[in-house]
Amino acid sequence: MNELLKIRNRKKAKKPTFLKQGAHLRAKLHKNWRRPRGGHSKFRLKLRSYRRQPSVGFSSPREVRGLTREGHKFILIHNIGDIEGVTTPVILASNLGSKKKLSIIKKCEEKKIQILNLKDINIYKKKIEDSMKKKKDLIKKRREKRDKKKEVKQDAKKEAHHEHNHEEEKKKLEQEKRKILEKK
Asked: Domain range holding 150?
């Protein structure tokens, strides 16, 4: 197994980057590989001065294909339940949220499982915790601001209602005065 991994790593070091035909000439063409299909294409005919194309000779040995550099299988983690029974290094899924990622990282630290797609776990954890703390503070400030606005509105409503009641009382007093004056 180790010999096969060494062979694969040596082959990978020599392997060129395969580009789509004309990708080095036009910026709008993507760099990913596509097979050349032109009838007069020199690239398709594999002429000497043209770029290399993927072929069987560039592939790695079948037994180690799809393994990490150390020879471990890629295990993709989507939730905490996926960690159960795992001892080899893992990869966190890209569509995980911050909270779930943080809980998975802590669980991996407890079990001493390596995470391959994070360079420094401690820095990443701190970054997530800081962002979560900022978010909580922002939410708290927004709630306080909203509550203050509600209080101001309620106070204004009470004052308006109180003034309205006060005006009604004045009107009633004036009507009573008129009644009394009209009787005389």
From this structure: 122-184
